[in-house]
Structure formats: C-alpha cells, structure tokens
Amino acid sequence: MNNTENNSLTLNNSEDSFDTEEPVSKSQRKREMLELQDLGKELTEITEKLLAKCQLPAELLNAIQEYKRLPNKHEARRRQLQFIGKLMRSVETTQIEQALGRHQHHANLNKRLDQQLEKLREQLLAGSAEALQELILEHPDIDIQYLRQLIRQAQKELNKNKLPSSNKKLFQYLRKLKQTD
Fold first, then answer.
1. The CATH number of the domain where 125 resides is what?
2. Is this structure's pTM higher than 0.90?
3. 44 assigned to some structural domain
4. Which of 1, 94, 2, 77 is nearest to 39 (CA)?
C-alpha cells in the first residue's frame, strides 16, 4: 500500500466514527436547559427543610435563597431563574429529582388519606352505624364514648350552622387513629 491509500483508509475510519456519534442539536440543548431551569423553579417553591434533603451545592442554594428574596420587578426573578438553570447544568440532578419525587409521593399519600378521612367523617355525621362499627372493629382500643361525643357535638353544630370546631376535632381524632395503624 502506498501513502495515499493509507491516508484514505485513515480518513474512512475517522468518518465512520463521526457517523456513529450524532451531535446534539441546538434545539435539544435548549430543551435540556429549559428542563433544568424548570427543575430550578421547582426548587424555589419548596420548603427549606426539603431543600436541605436535596443536598444542593452552596452556590446553588444561595441562588435559590436570593430568588426568594427578590421582588418580581424588572424581571429580576426571571433572570435569577436563568442563573439557577445555568448552575443546575453542573449539578447531578438525579438525587434532587428523587428527593422531590419522594416528597410528591408522600404528599399524594397524605392527600388520599385526608380524602378517606373526610369521607369517613361525613358517614359518621350522617349517622352511619356501619361506618362506626367498622371503625370500632379496625381500632379495638378506640375511646368509643369520646368518639360518639365528638359526633354528637359536630352534628349539633351543623344543625345550628355554627362554626365547625367539633367537626375539626372529629377529623383530627380520626387522623390520629389512622396514623397509629
């Protein structure tokens, strides 16, 4: 083989390697940056306690706290969000996404529990003996007298159109029972 053939073989091999790697388009990079910016916005809306669980770098944490302090004048928050998105590019986001996912899952479970408790409370206030009996069977250590007292007080308040303080107490008592499960 002569030198020209060697060069052409080398060129062909290098061209093949370029064909296997597809460059990321500008649009794709922009979508990825916007996703990071959206994740950063989500971080600005969560509590400090949850932020601590995300184990963010100090610079990113400071940028998020700065965002919370800024008034929404002259697009200051929008620019700060862009900066947070830029900082997010250098951060591994899987741990952050997992922490936010666990928080969202926990919030969904609490919401579902509240809906179940609300339905149970409505049944008890409507005088459902079945719901009361089922509750007593589920929780043998329940203070039946106190529960019935709460139900009667809440029913009286509903009939007199008073503020539902006993209604709230009944809900809290039911929540306490369900959380001890």
1. 1.10.60.30
2. no
3. yes
4. 94
